[in-house]
Write a structure and sequence with these properties.
This protein is α+β, with helices and mostly antiparallel strands. The chain has one domain: Cathepsin B, Chain A. It has nine helices and eight strands. Strands 1, 2, 3, 4, 5, 6, 7 and 8 form an eight-stranded mixed sheet that branches. The radius of gyration is 17 Å and the shape is globular. The chain binds zinc ion. This is Protein GUCD1. It comes from Brassicogethes aeneus.
């Protein structure tokens, strides 16, 4: 058994959420985009939050824009910010690690891409402020995330092994099995887009680019594990597309 697993479980107790200041529920309409390859989940999330015209522009110039932006089949959260900036989408990126976390060098998920991407990513972090990209080095609470959903969708880096969907049963079987043989699954980075929540049900609504057009649902506890899993750096982008409508 892995003692770490139980430690993680106990830190994600959300039973005392102060929901009273938040709307009971929020739902944001998004146009779904299903990823085409195994490396474009982040780009698919950006496509889901872009206004129609920008989305069409990105899709019709996809290869050219990827080349121009400099990513070669591996996108980091900072890359998604530059892409949002390219389309003048207001957003704020929170992470607990400004730049590349030194521990990623020992993480097999980052192993091969790190050598290839390191200088490019560091350069992008260094130039972010100059380019008008807002990065805050902090861990955010679930309450803050729910509150920000009033202003627009939220792109989050998760460990895909830990996300489940109560509706389509995505990963459900794996999770059940893990209860029998508890162990921390290997990190596998995957971006999803949050598009609402229900405080009464304590559920979060999201779109998973792996899936065909569909709003997925998971409990807030499950979400907390998935986004705080070691390897995510708690990367999260608050997109402010609905800010002017409030
Ligand atoms: Zn689902």
């Amino acid at each position: 058994m892995c003692p770490q697993h139980f430690h993680e479980m106990s830190t994600a107790n959300i039973s005392d959420f102060p929901y009273h200041d938040l709307p009971e529920s929020v739902e944001i309409d998004l146009n779904h985009y299903q990823q085409k390859y195994n490396w474009d989940c982040g780009l698919s999330c950006v496509l889901m939050v872009l206004p129609k015209e920008d989305r069409e522009d990105f899709l019709s110039n996809f290869a050219g824009i990827c080349k121009d932006e400099g990513f070669n089949k591996s996108t980091w959260t900072i890359d998604l910010c530059y892409l949002l900036k390219r389309y003048k989408i207001k957003h704020v990126y929170y992470t607990i690690t400004f730049g590349i976390h030194p521990e990623h060098a020992t993480n097999s998920f980052y192993d091969t891409i790190l050598t290839k991407d390191e200088s490019r990513i560091n350069r992008r972090f260094d130039n972010a402020e100059k380019c008008g990209i807002k990065i805050k080095t902090a861990s955010v609470t679930i309450e803050y995330i729910l509150d920000q959903l009033r202003f627009g969708p939220v792109i989050v880096l998760t460990n895909t092994q830990l996300i489940i969907c109560d509706r389509c049963k995505f990963n459900k079987m794996k999770t059940e099995l893990r209860k029998l043989i508890p162990c921390v699954p290997k990190f596998q980075g995957h971006y999803i887009v949050l598009c609402g929540y229900s405080a009464n049900l304590r559920k979060i609504f999201y779109r998973n680019p792996t899936m065909y057009n569909h709003v997925c649902v998971m409990s807030m506890e499950v979400f907390e594990h998935a986004r705080k899993s070691s390897g995510t750096d708690e990367d999260i982008i608050f997109v402010k597309t609905l800010e002017n409508q409030i």
